[in-house]
Write a structure and sequence with these properties.
Number of helices: 22
Strand content: 5-15%
CATH superfamily of the largest domain: Beta Polymerase, domain 2
Shape: elongated
CATH architecture of the largest domain: 2-Layer Sandwich
Radius of gyration: 28 Å
Structural class: alpha+beta
Oligomer: single chain
CATH class of the largest domain: Alpha Beta
Strand order of the largest sheet: 3-4-5-2-1-8-9
Distance between the termini: 95 Å
Length: 416
């Protein structure tokens, strides 16, 4: 029996139908099929993120077909056969069937083909080598893609080591797909090949590594995949240092149990040792964004030391000093490092207090300080800080008169 997806809405949406009609007007029926992620996700009941289409048409004919139909055609990767069709503002990536001519682990020289099986043979995993006609019929050239997708088996197309040598990023993609789609024990041949060729990951650009790593860490439960990365040595190649697996696994468990949103950056912080310099070096090496770099460094600060039994007053004081996002990150990391059975309710209450409190602004201006007799210049800032420290110690007193009285006392003290 032939497998079929039926005709889900993303297949029959007018913007997609317009693209398929344009291609078939040029190349005939069945010259274009959905491929890869959309087919895989539909098969296993996952959301469809984007639409990729494979075609027997060469890129120049794809461009001509789209333009003839009045659709926008963008040559996004035309040397490798990829054209993006924009239909009703929705992008559809169209790639000509191809085979690899030469590969060096980072890039490939390709030749175009009209052989669907040949195109499938150059792809990474069997579950990604699935095609679907516009009527929903699935075409499975490897003969294993449908079964592997349904069973959660991440299996390389052909010989794993060969696939990895062709594109070193496939090493990380194996673990990422295992995190997102894997079920049960991993494929032993794939694991052995990833371990044997782990050092090739160092040849990849930092941006490609960080993108794959953060995608992996965004999975609902990446713990089995990360444990496997550690066992194969791939994780050590990326981190260049020890990994705090117990804290990482605990943060994932906390997020799941407490229904917190999955947070790949915080999960990465949990994996690292409490060493801000090392975190900064890793962030630079992986070319993380400046906000992500700063967040990692702040989350791994040794101070303040957070405890589940902190009083509300202590919590507010530290939130004011380091900010809500950093306090929340540090609280979750401290929670992950603590014996959870005895302190879950305390940590949950602490975080709820933080999320429900907005740090106030000191109701005092520089002009008010100078009006109290403090000369313009650095002394204004010094007085402001002294009054602010008093205000924080008094739990953010909401009494402007008391703050002014404190200001007067500080200003008078400067006169002696």
């Amino acid at each position: 029996m032939t497998d079929s997806l039926g005709q889900p809405h993303w297949m029959t949406a007018p913007h997609t139908v317009a693209v398929l009609d344009a291609l078939e007007a040029e190349g005939g029926a069945d010259c274009a099929r959905f491929v890869g992620g959309a087919v895989r996700n539909a098969l296993v009941g996952r959301p469809i993120d984007d639409l990729d289409i494979a075609t027997t048409l060469t890129p120049d004919r794809v461009m001509a077909a789209l333009k003839a139909a009045g659709l926008r055609a963008v040559p996004t990767g035309i040397d490798h056969g990829t054209v993006t069709a924009v239909s009703n503002h929705v992008p559809h990536e169209i790639t000509t069937l191809r085979r690899d001519v030469t590969t060096d682990g980072r890039r490939a020289t390709v030749a175009f083909t009209d052989d669907w099986a040949e195109d499938a043979g150059r792809r990474d995993f069997t579950l990604n080598s699935l095609y679907a006609r516009r009527d929903g019929t699935i075409f499975d050239p490897t003969g294993h893609g449908v079964a592997d997708a349904k069973a959660g088996r991440i299996v390389f197309v052909g010989e794993p080591a060969q696939r990895l040598r062709e594109d070193h990023l496939r090493n990380l993609r194996f673990f990422r797909f295992y995190a997102w789609f894997g079920k049960g024990p991993p494929d032993t041949a794939a694991v052995a090949a990833c371990a044997a060729l782990k050092d090739s990951v160092d040849d990849l650009s930092a941006e490609r590594v960080s993108k794959e790593l953060l995608k992996l860490l965004a999975a609902d439960d990446p713990r089995p995949a990360v444990r496997l990365m550690a066992e194969t040595g791939v994780l050590a190649v990326i981190l260049k240092g020890p990994a705090n697996l117990p804290r990482f696994e605990a943060i994932c468990e906390i997020e799941a149990d407490q229904l917190f949103e999955t947070d790949p950056v915080l999960r990465l912080a949990a994996l690292l040792p409490d060493d801000q310099l090392a975190a900064g070096r890793l962030a630079e090496r992986l070319r993380l964004s400046n906000p992500d770099r700063d967040r990692l460094i702040a989350a791994l600060s040794p101070t303040p030391v957070l405890k589940s039994w902190m009083s509300p007053r202590e919590i507010r004081r530290e939130v004011y000093r380091i900010g809500q996002p950093t306090f929340r990150d540090r609280a979750k990391l401290a929670w992950a490092a603590s014996p959870r059975s005895a302190t879950t309710m305390q940590w949950r209450g602490l975080i709820a207090l933080v999320e429900g409190w907005s740090p106030p602004t000191l109701p005092l201006t520089g002009q008010e300080i100078m009006s109290a007799g403090v000369p313009k210049g650095p002394m204004v800032g010094q007085v402001m800080r002294e009054v602010e420290d008093w205000w924080i110690d008094h739990d953010f007193l909401d009494d402007k008169m008391s703050i002014i009285e404190k200001l007067k006392a500080v200003a008078q003290g400067l006169a002696y």
